[in-house]
Amino acid sequence: MSERGSGFLFSVSTPLGFSVRSTGAYWETIVNIKHPVLRGKVEDVKQLLQDPDAIRRSKQDSKVYLFYRRTDNERWLCAVVKRPDGEGFLVTAYVTDAVKEGASIWMK
Known about the structure:
Blueprint: E1 8-13, E2 19-23, H1 24-34, H2 42-50, E3 54-57, E4 64-70, E5 76-82, E6 88-96, E7 103-107
Parallel strand pairs: 2-6
Antiparallel strand pairs: 1-2, 3-4, 3-7, 4-5, 5-6
């Protein structure tokens, strides 16, 4: 769901009861600089945030959550979200071979 006029590319609800948002400009930074493999995958990231297989809390920062969803090729899509207050924002997203350490706070 896009919020036209707000500058947001998306704002989606998570199973933890809060929303996660990202601007189009920030998503472009992720796919052009940080993780080009995610180009064209914004819908996959939105689906991951709405319906993850697992959510963990970061060991380094209690306000950071890692959302995981298994991909077709036995890897994981991970979205890193920071929630400093009521809503969260996308920090980054990437594909990984393993789920990171941290407290498991939600499982499908």
